[in-house]
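Forwarding the complex inputs:
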Amino acid sequence: MPRTEPARGMRDFLPEDIRRREYVIGVIRRVYERYGFEPLETPAVENLETLMGKYGEEGNQLIFKILKRGEHEASGQADLALRYDLTVPLARVVAQYQSKLPRLFKRYQIQPVWRADRPARGRFREFCQCDVDSLGSTSPVIEAEVCAAVSDALTELGFTDFIIRLNHRQLLTSILNAAGIAESLHGTALVAVDKLDKIGPDGVKGEMRARGVESAAAARLLELFELLTKQRDQTRNVLGDEAGLAAFENVEAIFAHSQGTSAATRLRFDPSLARGLSYYTGAIMEITVPDLAGSLGGGGRYDNLVGMFLGQSVAACGFSLGLERILVVMGERGMFPPNLTTTAADVMMAVFDAADAPHALRVARVLRQCGLRVLVYPDADKIGKQIKYADSLAIPFVAILGGNEIAAGTVTVKNLSAQTQATYDQAAAGGAILEELRQRG
Amino acid sequence: MPRTEPARGMRDFLPEDIRRREYVIGVIRRVYERYGFEPLETPAVENLETLMGKYGEEGNQLIFKILKRGEHEASGQADLALRYDLTVPLARVVAQYQSKLPRLFKRYQIQPVWRADRPARGRFREFCQCDVDSLGSTSPVIEAEVCAAVSDALTELGFTDFIIRLNHRQLLTSILNAAGIAESLHGTALVAVDKLDKIGPDGVKGEMRARGVESAAAARLLELFELLTKQRDQTRNVLGDEAGLAAFENVEAIFAHSQGTSAATRLRFDPSLARGLSYYTGAIMEITVPDLAGSLGGGGRYDNLVGMFLGQSVAACGFSLGLERILVVMGERGMFPPNLTTTAADVMMAVFDAADAPHALRVARVLRQCGLRVLVYPDADKIGKQIKYADSLAIPFVAILGGNEIAAGTVTVKNLSAQTQATYDQAAAGGAILEELRQRG
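Prediction (whole assembly, two chains):
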C-alpha cells in the first residue's frame, strides 16, 4: 500500500482543526479591516527568479523549486517556486499594478507559505502567515499602526502577556560600530546575537569570538545592549554617528505615536533584536510571549524591496502574524471559545424503509429552508442503529419518517438529549426544532 | 528589471477580485454546511507517488513536480507535487484517519489545485475547486444529495438556467457494447464522444472512424445516444447485459430520489456523458449553462479510489464546483450583488500638523472601538490634498483634528457626499458617523 500520511512537514486539517483556524483567521481579518487594510491574494507559485536572492543565502536553499514542465522535465531544470513569504510577492504586485493601486496602499494577506525547513514542534513546511503592510509613506504613523493592529488582534484572541520588541536596523549597525566591530563582521556577529535568548550573554560572547569578533568588542557590545535596554535615552550619548541618531529618533517617534494605541503597553525597546530577513531597512519588530521560544510574529520597514522590481523605491512597512504559533499557544493555554466544537448537523433524517428515502430528502429540503443543517442517513438500517449513529456524532435531533408520518404529512422529531419526542406537520417541524435549539442555548 | 507579472497561468487577486471570490465561496460553503458536510483541508504539496497514476496518462503529465531538496536538487529528481484535485487527497485522508472519522464521512473542501495545462480563457494553472463528497454508502440518496447541494448553491448565487447531465460509467460501457464497439476501442471512442458538443454527431463519427471504430458501429452508437436521450425508458429494451441494466436502475433511482429536491428540475439523462477522470466507477454528473463551453462542475461515484490507499474499498461519491468558471459567468452576466464594492474604510483621519499625528491614532482607536473601519492618513499634507485622497478612494467620512479640536477634546467630521460637517466630542463621533452611515443605507 502507498503511504497515506501527508508529505513530511505538511498537515491535514480535520473539521475540528479547521474550525479553530477559521476562528483565529476571522478575528485577525476583522481587526485588519478595521485598520483600513484591504485583502490581497497572490499565487502559490512564483517565477523562481522573483524569489531568488531576496531572503539571503539560507532562504535560497529553503525555497521549494518546481520542475520546468514538458520535455524539459528530464533535465531537472526548475523555473517556478512555491511562495516563501507574503512580502516579496507583495513587492512584485505593487510594481506590477502601481497605476491601479492607491498612492497609500494598505493590504492584508492571509495565505500559506512553504519552506523546506527541518520540521519541528510548531514549525511546518506549509504554514499560514497573516500579514499587514502599508506602502507609500515613511511616517512613523505606519509603524505605530501595524503594531496597533497586531496588538488588537492578539488582544481580541485573548492574549494578555505579549510584548512587541522594537529595534531599528540602522541603530543596530551603529551600536555594532560603537562597540568597535568591523563592518565586515556585522553579519556573522548578528547570527550570534540572534541566539541571545537561547544561549545567554556568555554563550553569545563565545560564539562571537569563534566567528572572529575580538573579545573586547564582543563584551562591549553586550554591555551596550544591557545599558540601552535599561536606559533607552542613553542611546543619544553612546552613538556618535548621524545615521544612528536619526534611527534612534525614529524609534522614539514610533513610541510617541503609539502612546494612544493598544500597542502602548506592549512595546519594548530591544537594541539586540536583529530579525533574519535581509530586506529590512528601518524599524524592526518581533512579538514574543513568555511560554514560546521563537516569536508569534514580526515585521519591519523595507523601503528598498519594491525598488528591486520597479526601479524606483517605494516606502513600505509591515507586520506578519504566524498563525501556526498562535494556534499552538492558544491550544496549550485552552484559549479557544467552547462553542467552536459544533456538530456536523442539527438534525439527522431517518427512515424505516428504503422506499421512503425520497420522502426523507424532500423533508430534509424543507428543514434546510428553515436554515437547519440536516444530515440524511442514507441507508435503511434498523432505526435504533440510525439513532445511535446520530448520537455518536452528537447530532441533537433525529427526524423520523415512517409510513404513518408520510401518509399524514407529518414527521416525528426526537430530542436525543432531552429524550423527548413529538410529531409535527412537516412544514412546522423546522420551526419547532429551531425553538428547541434556542432553548438549549 | 525582473518580470513583475504573475507566473504564466497564475493570477494576482486585488481587493475587488477577492470580495467577489469570497462572496461566492461564502454562499457555497453555507449551502454545503446545510447538507451536513464538514470542512476539510489538505496540504498543497503531496508526495509525488500519491498523485501519479490516479488521473490517467494526460493527468500525469500535467502534475507540477517539486525538486527533491538539498544535495539531490542538482540531480533533478522530484519527490513532491502540487495537489491536482481534491479527490485523491481526500481518498488518502480517509485511508489515513479511518479510525477517527465517522462511518459516513461527509466533507466539503474549498481549496486551489494546480495543473500545468495550457492557459486559456477561464482556464488557469492555479484554480479553486469547491468539492463535496460522501463516503461510506452506496445508496442513491448520496448522489441525490450531492446534486441537490450543488443545485442549491448555484440557485442561491442566482443561476436559473443550469442543467445537471447524468450518466453512469457502466451504462456507457454497455451502450458501447450494444453498438458493437470492441472493449479495446472504448477508451479511444470515448475521447471522440467527449467532443460531441463541439463537433456534432458527424464530426464524432468521422473522428471515431479515424480512431479505428467501424462506421456502422459509430453510427449505431450515435443513434443509441439520440434514442435514449429522448426516450430514457428504451434503455431497458436496448441493453442486454445485467451490469448495464443494473446501472440503468441506479440512474432511475437517482432520478426518483431527487424528486423532492432542488435538483429535480435540473437533472437530464445524457447517455453520451463520459467525464475525463479515470477513477469514476458509477454515476457521473456534469453541470452546464448555455453560454459557457465546458462545465461549471462535475462529479460522480468512485468506489475504488480509497481502496488504492487502504487495501479495502470504501464507497464514495462527490461533486466539484469550479469556482473560476462560476466567477467568469457571473461577471459576464452581472450577477454580483451591488454592495460587494465596499471601500477600504468608513472614515479617514486627517491632521493639520505632523505633531498631532499621535492624537489622530488615539482618536482612530476610539472610532475603531465603535466598529468603524478607519484609515489614518500618515503624512501632514495640506488638508485639501488629504480630503481629496479620501474622496478618490470613496471613503465617505473624513475626521479632522486641528489644534482647537485637540484642546477641546473634539473632532470635526466631514461627510464628503452630503458636503456637511459637524464637530463632536471625540467619544461621541463614532456613534454619529454610524448613524449617518445607517441613513445612507
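The first strand of chain B starts at residue 38 and ends at 39.
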